[in-house]
Batch of 2 targets.
Target 1
Amino acid sequence: MTGLRHSPKFAAVCIDTRDGAGRRRLHGVARYAREKAWRMMLVRRRGQEAAREVVKLRPDGIIAYIADEALVEAARRLSVPLVDTAISEVDVPMSLSLDNCEVGRLAAESLVRLGLKHFAYCGVRGKRASEERRTHFGRHLRQWGHELMSFSQGVAEGESQMKPLMKWLESLPKPVGVLTFDDKLAERVLTASRWSNLPVPEAVAVLGIGNDDLISKLTWPPLSSVNVPAERIGFEAADILDRAMRSEPIENPRRKIPPTGVTMRGSTELVAVEDWLIESAVRYVRQHAGEAIGVEHVARALGVSRRTLDRRFVKALGRSVHEELTSARMQMACALLSESLETVAEIAGTCGFRTAASFSRAFHRQIGCWPVEYRNRSR
Protein backbone atom coordinates (compact mmCIF):
# COMPACT_ATOMS: atom_id res chain seq x y z
CA MET A 1 0.00 0.00 0.00
CA THR A 2 1.42 3.33 -1.04
CA GLY A 3 1.88 5.83 1.77
CA LEU A 4 -0.06 9.08 1.68
CA ARG A 5 1.86 12.08 0.37
CA HIS A 6 1.59 15.11 2.58
CA SER A 7 1.02 18.41 0.83
CA PRO A 8 3.81 20.95 1.38
CA LYS A 9 3.37 23.40 4.22
CA PHE A 10 2.22 26.88 3.26
CA ALA A 11 3.58 29.87 5.21
CA ALA A 12 2.51 33.51 5.02
CA VAL A 13 5.56 35.75 5.47
CA CYS A 14 4.76 39.25 6.75
CA ILE A 15 8.17 40.91 6.51
CA ASP A 16 8.77 44.51 5.46
CA THR A 17 11.39 44.42 2.71
CA ARG A 18 12.03 48.17 2.61
CA ASP A 19 15.12 47.92 4.80
CA GLY A 20 18.12 45.62 4.93
CA ALA A 21 17.07 43.98 8.21
CA GLY A 22 13.79 42.82 6.69
CA ARG A 23 15.34 41.68 3.41
CA ARG A 24 18.02 39.63 5.17
CA ARG A 25 15.42 37.99 7.40
CA LEU A 26 13.46 37.12 4.27
CA HIS A 27 16.57 35.53 2.73
CA GLY A 28 16.84 33.26 5.76
CA VAL A 29 13.17 32.28 5.62
CA ALA A 30 13.39 31.63 1.86
CA ARG A 31 16.49 29.45 2.30
CA TYR A 32 14.68 27.32 4.88
CA ALA A 33 11.58 27.14 2.68
CA ARG A 34 13.66 25.81 -0.23
CA GLU A 35 15.26 23.16 1.95
CA LYS A 36 11.89 22.00 3.30
CA ALA A 37 9.95 22.43 0.03
CA TRP A 38 7.48 24.84 1.62
CA ARG A 39 5.13 27.05 -0.30
CA MET A 40 5.64 30.64 0.79
CA MET A 41 3.67 33.82 0.13
CA LEU A 42 5.10 37.26 0.90
CA VAL A 43 2.53 39.66 2.35
CA ARG A 44 3.64 43.19 1.54
CA ARG A 45 0.82 45.06 3.27
CA ARG A 46 0.93 46.16 6.89
CA GLY A 47 -1.48 46.47 9.79
CA GLN A 48 -5.13 45.57 9.26
CA GLU A 49 -4.60 45.11 5.51
CA ALA A 50 -1.89 42.51 6.13
CA ALA A 51 -4.08 40.66 8.63
CA ARG A 52 -7.01 40.56 6.18
CA GLU A 53 -4.78 39.22 3.41
CA VAL A 54 -3.39 36.52 5.71
CA VAL A 55 -6.91 35.39 6.62
CA LYS A 56 -7.77 35.11 2.92
CA LEU A 57 -4.61 33.08 2.22
CA ARG A 58 -5.39 30.59 5.02
CA PRO A 59 -1.75 29.52 5.58
CA ASP A 60 -0.50 26.73 7.84
CA GLY A 61 1.61 29.26 9.73
CA ILE A 62 2.81 32.87 9.81
CA ILE A 63 6.24 34.49 10.12
CA ALA A 64 6.30 38.19 10.97
CA TYR A 65 8.78 41.01 11.40
CA ILE A 66 7.39 42.98 14.36
CA ALA A 67 3.90 41.51 14.67
CA ASP A 68 0.96 43.73 15.67
CA GLU A 69 -2.36 43.03 17.39
CA ALA A 70 -4.18 42.56 14.08
CA LEU A 71 -1.77 39.84 12.93
CA VAL A 72 -1.88 38.07 16.30
CA GLU A 73 -5.68 38.07 16.08
CA ALA A 74 -5.53 36.69 12.52
CA ALA A 75 -3.37 33.80 13.74
CA ARG A 76 -5.87 33.10 16.55
CA ARG A 77 -8.78 33.22 14.12
CA LEU A 78 -7.07 30.74 11.78
CA SER A 79 -5.75 28.60 14.67
CA VAL A 80 -2.26 28.61 13.13
CA PRO A 81 1.14 29.28 14.75
CA LEU A 82 2.78 32.70 14.49
CA VAL A 83 6.52 33.31 14.93
CA ASP A 84 7.92 36.83 15.25
CA THR A 85 11.47 37.70 14.17
CA ALA A 86 11.81 40.79 16.38
CA ILE A 87 10.59 42.21 19.68
CA SER A 88 7.07 43.53 19.07
CA GLU A 89 4.77 45.62 21.24
CA VAL A 90 2.32 42.72 21.65
CA ASP A 91 2.75 39.33 23.30
CA VAL A 92 3.75 36.65 20.79
CA PRO A 93 4.24 33.13 22.23
CA MET A 94 7.01 32.21 19.76
CA SER A 95 9.75 34.62 18.72
CA LEU A 96 13.36 34.78 17.69
CA SER A 97 14.97 38.16 18.25
CA LEU A 98 18.26 39.96 18.74
CA ASP A 99 19.93 39.69 22.15
CA ASN A 100 19.86 43.35 23.18
CA CYS A 101 21.91 42.72 26.31
CA GLU A 102 24.80 41.62 24.10
CA VAL A 103 24.15 44.55 21.75
CA GLY A 104 24.54 46.91 24.70
CA ARG A 105 27.77 45.24 25.80
CA LEU A 106 29.38 45.34 22.34
CA ALA A 107 28.32 48.93 21.73
CA ALA A 108 29.62 50.09 25.12
CA GLU A 109 32.96 48.33 24.67
CA SER A 110 33.41 49.67 21.13
CA LEU A 111 32.77 53.30 22.10
CA VAL A 112 34.73 53.17 25.37
CA ARG A 113 37.74 51.81 23.44
CA LEU A 114 37.82 55.07 21.49
CA GLY A 115 38.80 56.90 24.68
CA LEU A 116 35.46 58.73 24.93
CA LYS A 117 34.15 59.96 28.29
CA HIS A 118 30.62 61.01 27.24
CA PHE A 119 27.94 58.68 25.88
CA ALA A 120 24.38 59.03 24.63
CA TYR A 121 21.58 56.90 23.20
CA CYS A 122 19.09 58.00 20.56
CA GLY A 123 16.01 55.79 20.46
CA VAL A 124 12.43 55.53 19.23
CA ARG A 125 9.69 56.63 21.61
CA GLY A 126 7.30 53.90 22.77
CA LYS A 127 9.24 51.01 21.23
CA ARG A 128 10.05 48.15 23.59
CA ALA A 129 13.15 47.02 21.69
CA SER A 130 14.51 50.58 21.81
CA GLU A 131 14.03 50.75 25.56
CA GLU A 132 15.80 47.39 25.96
CA ARG A 133 18.81 48.61 24.00
CA ARG A 134 18.99 51.85 25.99
CA THR A 135 18.79 49.98 29.30
CA HIS A 136 21.49 47.44 28.48
CA PHE A 137 23.79 50.03 26.87
CA GLY A 138 23.55 52.19 29.99
CA ARG A 139 24.10 49.24 32.33
CA HIS A 140 27.29 48.18 30.58
CA LEU A 141 28.56 51.77 30.48
CA ARG A 142 28.08 52.05 34.24
CA GLN A 143 30.32 49.01 34.66
CA TRP A 144 33.02 51.14 33.00
CA GLY A 145 32.21 54.07 35.32
CA HIS A 146 30.28 56.13 32.75
CA GLU A 147 26.76 57.59 32.71
CA LEU A 148 24.35 57.66 29.77
CA MET A 149 22.35 60.55 28.32
CA SER A 150 19.36 59.60 26.18
CA PHE A 151 16.81 61.01 23.75
CA SER A 152 13.77 59.41 22.11
CA GLN A 153 11.67 60.64 19.22
CA GLY A 154 8.74 59.42 17.16
CA VAL A 155 9.09 57.48 13.95
CA ALA A 156 7.94 60.39 11.73
CA GLU A 157 10.54 62.02 9.53
CA GLY A 158 10.97 65.51 8.13
CA GLU A 159 12.63 68.78 9.10
CA SER A 160 10.24 69.40 12.02
CA GLN A 161 11.43 66.14 13.60
CA MET A 162 15.07 67.12 13.09
CA LYS A 163 14.97 70.29 15.18
CA PRO A 164 14.56 68.58 18.60
CA LEU A 165 17.26 66.08 17.62
CA MET A 166 19.62 68.88 16.58
CA LYS A 167 18.97 70.74 19.84
CA TRP A 168 19.72 67.59 21.85
CA LEU A 169 22.94 66.87 19.95
CA GLU A 170 24.09 70.47 20.41
CA SER A 171 23.47 70.21 24.18
CA LEU A 172 25.64 67.12 24.68
CA PRO A 173 29.19 67.43 26.09
CA LYS A 174 31.79 66.79 23.39
CA PRO A 175 33.27 64.58 22.13
CA VAL A 176 30.39 62.15 22.61
CA GLY A 177 29.68 58.62 21.42
CA VAL A 178 26.08 58.12 20.30
CA LEU A 179 24.43 54.71 19.90
CA THR A 180 21.19 54.74 17.90
CA PHE A 181 18.28 52.29 17.86
CA ASP A 182 19.06 51.26 14.28
CA ASP A 183 20.92 52.35 11.16
CA LYS A 184 18.01 54.42 9.82
CA LEU A 185 18.03 56.52 12.98
CA ALA A 186 21.83 56.71 12.82
CA GLU A 187 21.51 58.18 9.33
CA ARG A 188 19.20 60.83 10.78
CA VAL A 189 21.70 61.60 13.55
CA LEU A 190 24.45 62.05 10.95
CA THR A 191 22.22 64.50 9.06
CA ALA A 192 21.29 66.40 12.23
CA SER A 193 24.97 66.64 13.17
CA ARG A 194 25.80 68.05 9.75
CA TRP A 195 22.98 70.62 9.96
CA SER A 196 24.24 71.62 13.42
CA ASN A 197 27.84 71.96 12.15
CA LEU A 198 28.97 69.20 14.53
CA PRO A 199 31.83 67.27 12.89
CA VAL A 200 31.53 63.48 12.80
CA PRO A 201 33.36 61.70 14.37
CA GLU A 202 35.45 64.44 16.02
CA ALA A 203 32.52 65.91 18.01
CA VAL A 204 29.87 63.19 17.59
CA ALA A 205 30.89 59.56 17.01
CA VAL A 206 27.86 57.63 15.71
CA LEU A 207 27.24 53.88 16.03
CA GLY A 208 24.16 52.26 14.47
CA ILE A 209 22.64 48.78 14.83
CA GLY A 210 21.96 46.47 11.91
CA ASN A 211 24.91 47.05 9.56
CA ASP A 212 22.62 47.84 6.64
CA ASP A 213 24.82 47.52 3.57
CA LEU A 214 23.08 50.27 1.59
CA ILE A 215 23.05 52.80 4.44
CA SER A 216 26.73 52.18 5.24
CA LYS A 217 27.61 52.94 1.61
CA LEU A 218 25.39 56.03 1.24
CA THR A 219 26.19 57.84 4.49
CA TRP A 220 29.15 60.13 5.03
CA PRO A 221 31.21 59.38 6.94
CA PRO A 222 30.46 55.68 6.37
CA LEU A 223 28.39 54.41 9.27
CA SER A 224 29.81 52.12 11.96
CA SER A 225 27.28 49.56 13.12
CA VAL A 226 26.60 46.53 15.31
CA ASN A 227 26.30 43.44 13.10
CA VAL A 228 22.92 41.69 13.26
CA PRO A 229 22.70 38.09 11.93
CA ALA A 230 19.31 38.81 10.35
CA GLU A 231 19.46 35.93 7.87
CA ARG A 232 20.14 33.49 10.69
CA ILE A 233 17.20 34.97 12.62
CA GLY A 234 14.92 34.38 9.61
CA PHE A 235 16.21 30.84 9.08
CA GLU A 236 15.82 29.77 12.71
CA ALA A 237 12.41 31.44 12.98
CA ALA A 238 11.32 29.33 10.01
CA ASP A 239 12.61 26.24 11.82
CA ILE A 240 10.50 27.08 14.88
CA LEU A 241 7.45 27.60 12.66
CA ASP A 242 8.09 24.31 10.84
CA ARG A 243 8.10 22.42 14.14
CA ALA A 244 4.97 24.24 15.32
CA MET A 245 3.11 23.47 12.07
CA ARG A 246 3.96 19.78 12.58
CA SER A 247 2.82 19.98 16.23
CA GLU A 248 6.28 19.05 17.50
CA PRO A 249 7.46 20.17 20.96
CA ILE A 250 9.59 23.32 20.81
CA GLU A 251 12.41 23.90 23.26
CA ASN A 252 12.84 27.56 24.14
CA PRO A 253 10.12 29.13 21.94
CA ARG A 254 11.44 32.63 22.72
CA ARG A 255 15.05 32.64 21.61
CA LYS A 256 17.67 35.38 21.61
CA ILE A 257 20.38 35.52 18.95
CA PRO A 258 23.56 37.49 19.78
CA PRO A 259 25.00 40.10 17.41
CA THR A 260 28.11 39.02 15.53
CA GLY A 261 30.42 41.93 16.31
CA VAL A 262 30.79 45.57 15.34
CA THR A 263 31.93 46.92 11.98
CA MET A 264 33.84 50.15 12.63
CA ARG A 265 33.86 52.70 9.81
CA GLY A 266 34.37 56.43 9.43
CA SER A 267 31.61 57.58 11.80
CA THR A 268 33.63 56.32 14.79
CA GLU A 269 37.14 56.76 13.45
CA LEU A 270 38.59 58.90 16.21
CA VAL A 271 40.86 58.58 19.22
CA ALA A 272 39.58 60.79 22.04
CA VAL A 273 42.88 61.20 23.91
CA GLU A 274 45.11 64.22 24.45
CA ASP A 275 48.39 62.31 24.09
CA TRP A 276 49.56 62.82 20.48
CA LEU A 277 51.69 59.66 20.64
CA ILE A 278 48.72 57.46 21.53
CA GLU A 279 46.51 59.03 18.88
CA SER A 280 49.24 58.46 16.29
CA ALA A 281 49.77 54.88 17.47
CA VAL A 282 46.08 53.98 17.21
CA ARG A 283 45.83 55.47 13.73
CA TYR A 284 48.96 53.59 12.65
CA VAL A 285 47.57 50.31 14.00
CA ARG A 286 44.25 50.80 12.19
CA GLN A 287 45.97 51.64 8.91
CA HIS A 288 48.48 48.76 9.04
CA ALA A 289 46.56 46.02 10.91
CA GLY A 290 46.42 43.95 7.73
CA GLU A 291 50.20 43.80 7.53
CA ALA A 292 52.46 41.37 9.40
CA ILE A 293 53.48 43.94 12.02
CA GLY A 294 54.03 43.77 15.76
CA VAL A 295 54.37 46.29 18.57
CA GLU A 296 58.05 46.86 17.70
CA HIS A 297 57.05 48.03 14.20
CA VAL A 298 54.57 50.53 15.66
CA ALA A 299 57.12 51.92 18.13
CA ARG A 300 59.79 52.18 15.43
CA ALA A 301 57.42 54.02 13.08
CA LEU A 302 56.68 56.58 15.80
CA GLY A 303 60.31 56.95 16.88
CA VAL A 304 59.93 55.79 20.49
CA SER A 305 60.88 52.71 22.48
CA ARG A 306 58.40 49.88 22.86
CA ARG A 307 58.45 50.31 26.62
CA THR A 308 57.59 54.02 26.39
CA LEU A 309 54.80 53.38 23.89
CA ASP A 310 53.25 50.57 25.93
CA ARG A 311 53.43 52.55 29.17
CA ARG A 312 51.72 55.63 27.72
CA PHE A 313 49.22 53.50 25.79
CA VAL A 314 48.07 51.64 28.91
CA LYS A 315 47.87 54.89 30.87
CA ALA A 316 45.70 56.57 28.21
CA LEU A 317 43.45 53.70 27.09
CA GLY A 318 43.78 50.98 29.72
CA ARG A 319 45.05 48.37 27.26
CA SER A 320 48.31 47.47 25.53
CA VAL A 321 49.37 48.15 21.94
CA HIS A 322 49.30 44.40 21.30
CA GLU A 323 45.67 44.26 22.47
CA GLU A 324 44.80 47.17 20.18
CA LEU A 325 46.46 45.45 17.22
CA THR A 326 44.65 42.18 17.95
CA SER A 327 41.32 44.00 18.29
CA ALA A 328 41.79 45.81 14.97
CA ARG A 329 42.59 42.52 13.22
CA MET A 330 39.60 40.74 14.75
CA GLN A 331 37.25 43.55 13.69
CA MET A 332 38.61 43.27 10.17
CA ALA A 333 38.25 39.49 10.23
CA CYS A 334 34.66 39.60 11.51
CA ALA A 335 33.65 42.02 8.76
CA LEU A 336 35.27 39.87 6.06
CA LEU A 337 33.75 36.65 7.38
CA SER A 338 30.30 38.26 7.43
CA GLU A 339 30.40 40.18 4.17
CA SER A 340 32.98 38.68 1.78
CA LEU A 341 33.38 35.41 -0.12
CA GLU A 342 37.09 35.12 0.75
CA THR A 343 38.26 31.80 2.18
CA VAL A 344 39.51 31.60 5.77
CA ALA A 345 43.07 31.30 4.45
CA GLU A 346 42.66 34.44 2.33
CA ILE A 347 41.16 36.34 5.27
CA ALA A 348 44.06 35.24 7.46
CA GLY A 349 46.52 36.85 5.03
CA THR A 350 44.40 40.00 4.69
CA CYS A 351 44.38 40.38 8.48
CA GLY A 352 48.16 40.10 8.89
CA PHE A 353 48.48 36.43 9.88
CA ARG A 354 51.10 34.22 8.25
CA THR A 355 49.00 31.04 8.36
CA ALA A 356 45.32 30.11 8.49
CA ALA A 357 46.02 27.96 11.56
CA SER A 358 47.50 30.83 13.59
CA PHE A 359 44.61 33.06 12.53
CA SER A 360 42.01 30.45 13.51
CA ARG A 361 43.58 29.96 16.94
CA ALA A 362 43.74 33.71 17.58
CA PHE A 363 40.17 34.16 16.36
CA HIS A 364 38.88 31.39 18.63
CA ARG A 365 40.77 32.83 21.59
CA GLN A 366 39.37 36.35 21.06
CA ILE A 367 35.87 35.74 19.69
CA GLY A 368 35.05 32.40 21.31
CA CYS A 369 34.34 30.39 18.17
CA TRP A 370 36.15 29.23 15.02
CA PRO A 371 36.08 31.42 11.88
CA VAL A 372 33.85 29.00 9.95
CA GLU A 373 31.39 28.88 12.86
CA TYR A 374 31.30 32.68 12.98
CA ARG A 375 30.66 32.88 9.22
CA ASN A 376 27.78 30.40 9.45
CA ARG A 377 26.20 32.24 12.39
CA SER A 378 26.40 35.66 10.77
CA ARG A 379 24.67 34.64 7.55
Note: The chain has three domains: 10-97+230-257, 100-229+262-268, 276-377.
Target 2
Amino acid sequence: MKRVLLISANMMKKPYAVYPLGLDYVVGVLKSRYETKILDMNEFSSLEKLGEQVRCYEPDYIGLSIRNVDNTDTINSKGFLSDYQHLVNVIRRNSQALLILGGSGYTVFPLEFIRALDADYGVAGEGERFPVLLAALENKTDVTTIPGIVTKQSTSVDYGAWNGGMHRTFDPDSAHTKYYLSYGGMLNLQTKRGCPFKCSYCTYPHIE
Protein backbone atom coordinates (compact mmCIF):
# COMPACT_ATOMS: atom_id res chain seq x y z
CA MET A 1 0.00 0.00 0.00
CA LYS A 2 1.39 3.40 -0.98
CA ARG A 3 1.97 6.03 1.67
CA VAL A 4 0.60 9.57 1.81
CA LEU A 5 2.10 12.04 4.25
CA LEU A 6 -0.10 15.05 5.05
CA ILE A 7 1.61 18.08 6.59
CA SER A 8 -0.16 21.03 8.17
CA ALA A 9 2.10 24.02 7.48
CA ASN A 10 0.34 26.30 9.96
CA MET A 11 2.65 27.55 12.72
CA MET A 12 0.38 30.24 14.20
CA LYS A 13 -0.41 29.74 17.88
CA LYS A 14 -1.96 33.14 18.63
CA PRO A 15 -4.65 33.83 19.60
CA TYR A 16 -4.83 30.02 19.74
CA ALA A 17 -3.50 27.02 17.85
CA VAL A 18 -6.00 25.68 15.29
CA TYR A 19 -6.47 21.93 14.85
CA PRO A 20 -5.98 20.90 11.16
CA LEU A 21 -9.55 19.72 10.69
CA GLY A 22 -9.36 19.59 6.90
CA LEU A 23 -6.70 16.89 6.98
CA ASP A 24 -9.06 14.60 8.90
CA TYR A 25 -11.41 14.75 5.91
CA VAL A 26 -8.58 14.10 3.46
CA VAL A 27 -7.55 11.04 5.46
CA GLY A 28 -11.18 9.94 5.40
CA VAL A 29 -11.17 9.63 1.60
CA LEU A 30 -7.63 8.25 1.36
CA LYS A 31 -7.54 5.55 4.03
CA SER A 32 -9.18 2.78 1.99
CA ARG A 33 -6.38 2.83 -0.59
CA TYR A 34 -3.40 4.46 1.12
CA GLU A 35 -1.49 4.36 4.36
CA THR A 36 -1.68 7.89 5.77
CA LYS A 37 0.03 9.99 8.41
CA ILE A 38 -0.51 13.57 9.58
CA LEU A 39 2.33 15.81 10.71
CA ASP A 40 1.60 19.23 12.20
CA MET A 41 4.18 22.02 12.18
CA ASN A 42 2.79 23.36 15.45
CA GLU A 43 4.19 20.24 17.10
CA PHE A 44 7.75 20.64 15.84
CA SER A 45 10.38 22.84 17.45
CA SER A 46 12.49 22.89 14.28
CA LEU A 47 12.33 22.11 10.57
CA GLU A 48 15.08 19.55 11.07
CA LYS A 49 12.79 17.42 13.22
CA LEU A 50 10.17 17.56 10.49
CA GLY A 51 12.80 16.48 7.98
CA GLU A 52 13.61 13.43 10.10
CA GLN A 53 9.94 12.42 10.18
CA VAL A 54 9.58 12.87 6.42
CA ARG A 55 12.69 10.82 5.73
CA CYS A 56 11.71 8.00 8.10
CA TYR A 57 8.16 7.69 6.77
CA GLU A 58 9.29 7.36 3.12
CA PRO A 59 6.02 8.62 1.56
CA ASP A 60 5.02 8.19 -2.07
CA TYR A 61 3.04 11.44 -1.98
CA ILE A 62 3.19 14.47 0.28
CA GLY A 63 0.25 16.81 0.76
CA LEU A 64 1.14 20.22 2.20
CA SER A 65 -1.82 22.07 3.66
CA ILE A 66 -1.51 25.88 3.70
CA ARG A 67 -4.04 27.51 5.99
CA ASN A 68 -2.69 31.04 6.39
CA VAL A 69 -1.30 33.51 3.86
CA ASP A 70 -0.32 36.02 6.56
CA ASN A 71 -0.96 36.76 10.22
CA THR A 72 -3.87 39.17 9.52
CA ASP A 73 -2.29 41.71 11.89
CA THR A 74 -2.52 45.25 10.50
CA ILE A 75 -0.11 46.61 13.14
CA ASN A 76 2.64 44.01 12.83
CA SER A 77 1.97 42.34 9.49
CA LYS A 78 3.87 39.21 8.48
CA GLY A 79 3.49 37.11 5.36
CA PHE A 80 4.29 33.40 5.48
CA LEU A 81 5.54 32.69 1.95
CA SER A 82 9.21 32.63 2.94
CA ASP A 83 8.40 30.27 5.83
CA TYR A 84 6.65 27.92 3.42
CA GLN A 85 9.60 28.09 1.02
CA HIS A 86 11.96 27.00 3.82
CA LEU A 87 9.53 24.22 4.73
CA VAL A 88 9.37 22.96 1.15
CA ASN A 89 13.17 23.01 0.89
CA VAL A 90 13.38 20.72 3.93
CA ILE A 91 10.75 18.40 2.46
CA ARG A 92 12.57 18.22 -0.88
CA ARG A 93 15.89 17.45 0.80
CA ASN A 94 14.38 14.51 2.63
CA SER A 95 11.97 13.02 0.08
CA GLN A 96 11.55 12.44 -3.64
CA ALA A 97 7.77 12.15 -3.27
CA LEU A 98 5.41 14.25 -5.37
CA LEU A 99 4.50 17.43 -3.50
CA ILE A 100 0.83 18.45 -3.68
CA LEU A 101 -0.43 21.71 -2.20
CA GLY A 102 -3.86 22.31 -0.71
CA GLY A 103 -5.70 24.09 2.07
CA SER A 104 -7.72 27.27 2.44
CA GLY A 105 -4.76 29.65 2.16
CA TYR A 106 -3.48 27.84 -0.91
CA THR A 107 -6.93 27.99 -2.50
CA VAL A 108 -6.96 31.79 -2.30
CA PHE A 109 -3.75 32.03 -4.38
CA PRO A 110 -3.36 28.62 -6.09
CA LEU A 111 -1.40 29.71 -9.16
CA GLU A 112 0.91 31.97 -7.20
CA PHE A 113 1.67 29.38 -4.52
CA ILE A 114 2.35 26.47 -6.86
CA ARG A 115 4.93 28.55 -8.72
CA ALA A 116 6.50 30.22 -5.70
CA LEU A 117 6.90 26.86 -3.92
CA ASP A 118 7.70 24.88 -7.09
CA ALA A 119 5.23 22.17 -6.11
CA ASP A 120 4.18 19.37 -8.46
CA TYR A 121 0.40 19.77 -8.18
CA GLY A 122 -2.23 21.65 -6.24
CA VAL A 123 -5.76 20.93 -5.07
CA ALA A 124 -7.80 24.14 -4.93
CA GLY A 125 -11.05 23.89 -2.98
CA GLU A 126 -12.16 20.77 -1.16
CA GLY A 127 -9.38 18.34 -0.32
CA GLU A 128 -11.58 15.34 -1.10
CA ARG A 129 -10.28 15.61 -4.67
CA PHE A 130 -6.86 14.46 -3.46
CA PRO A 131 -7.46 10.73 -4.18
CA VAL A 132 -9.05 11.64 -7.52
CA LEU A 133 -5.78 13.33 -8.46
CA LEU A 134 -3.72 10.37 -7.25
CA ALA A 135 -5.86 7.94 -9.24
CA ALA A 136 -5.36 10.01 -12.39
CA LEU A 137 -1.60 10.11 -11.84
CA GLU A 138 -1.40 6.36 -11.26
CA ASN A 139 -3.62 5.61 -14.26
CA LYS A 140 -1.72 8.15 -16.38
CA THR A 141 -4.85 10.07 -17.32
CA ASP A 142 -5.20 13.83 -17.79
CA VAL A 143 -5.31 15.51 -14.37
CA THR A 144 -6.29 18.88 -15.83
CA THR A 145 -9.83 17.62 -16.48
CA ILE A 146 -10.41 17.35 -12.71
CA PRO A 147 -12.00 20.50 -11.22
CA GLY A 148 -9.72 22.23 -8.74
CA ILE A 149 -6.52 20.52 -9.85
CA VAL A 150 -3.63 22.88 -10.57
CA THR A 151 -0.35 22.20 -12.37
CA LYS A 152 2.68 24.41 -12.96
CA GLN A 153 1.33 25.06 -16.45
CA SER A 154 -2.14 26.13 -15.29
CA THR A 155 -3.23 29.65 -16.21
CA SER A 156 -6.64 29.50 -14.51
CA VAL A 157 -8.48 27.41 -11.93
CA ASP A 158 -11.81 25.62 -12.27
CA TYR A 159 -13.42 26.03 -8.85
CA GLY A 160 -16.02 23.33 -9.33
CA ALA A 161 -18.13 22.26 -6.37
CA TRP A 162 -17.34 18.91 -4.74
CA ASN A 163 -20.35 16.62 -5.09
CA GLY A 164 -18.83 13.48 -3.59
CA GLY A 165 -18.92 12.15 -0.07
CA MET A 166 -17.29 13.61 3.04
CA HIS A 167 -15.82 11.27 5.62
CA ARG A 168 -13.92 12.63 8.59
CA THR A 169 -11.44 10.24 10.18
CA PHE A 170 -10.59 11.29 13.73
CA ASP A 171 -7.81 9.59 15.67
CA PRO A 172 -7.96 10.48 19.39
CA ASP A 173 -4.60 8.81 19.96
CA SER A 174 -2.63 10.66 17.27
CA ALA A 175 0.23 12.93 18.31
CA HIS A 176 -1.36 16.05 16.85
CA THR A 177 -4.71 15.37 18.58
CA LYS A 178 -2.97 15.02 21.94
CA TYR A 179 -1.01 18.19 21.25
CA TYR A 180 -4.12 20.33 20.75
CA LEU A 181 -5.89 18.83 23.74
CA SER A 182 -2.89 19.62 25.94
CA TYR A 183 -2.26 23.05 24.40
CA GLY A 184 -5.74 24.48 24.37
CA GLY A 185 -8.10 21.75 25.48
CA MET A 186 -10.33 21.95 22.40
CA LEU A 187 -10.71 20.55 18.90
CA ASN A 188 -12.72 21.60 15.82
CA LEU A 189 -16.11 20.57 14.51
CA GLN A 190 -17.38 21.46 11.03
CA THR A 191 -21.14 21.99 10.96
CA LYS A 192 -21.54 23.17 7.36
CA ARG A 193 -19.64 23.75 4.16
CA GLY A 194 -19.79 26.60 1.71
CA CYS A 195 -22.02 29.65 1.62
CA PRO A 196 -24.97 30.59 -0.62
CA PHE A 197 -23.83 34.22 -0.83
CA LYS A 198 -21.12 35.72 -3.05
CA CYS A 199 -19.83 38.69 -1.10
CA SER A 200 -17.04 40.42 -3.02
CA TYR A 201 -14.71 40.60 -0.01
CA CYS A 202 -15.06 36.96 1.07
CA THR A 203 -12.94 33.99 -0.01
CA TYR A 204 -15.33 31.23 1.06
CA PRO A 205 -17.00 30.77 -2.35
CA HIS A 206 -13.57 29.62 -3.58
CA ILE A 207 -12.50 27.71 -0.49
CA GLU A 208 -15.65 25.57 -0.08
Note: The beta strands are 3-8, 35-40, 61-65, 98-102, 121-123, 149-150.
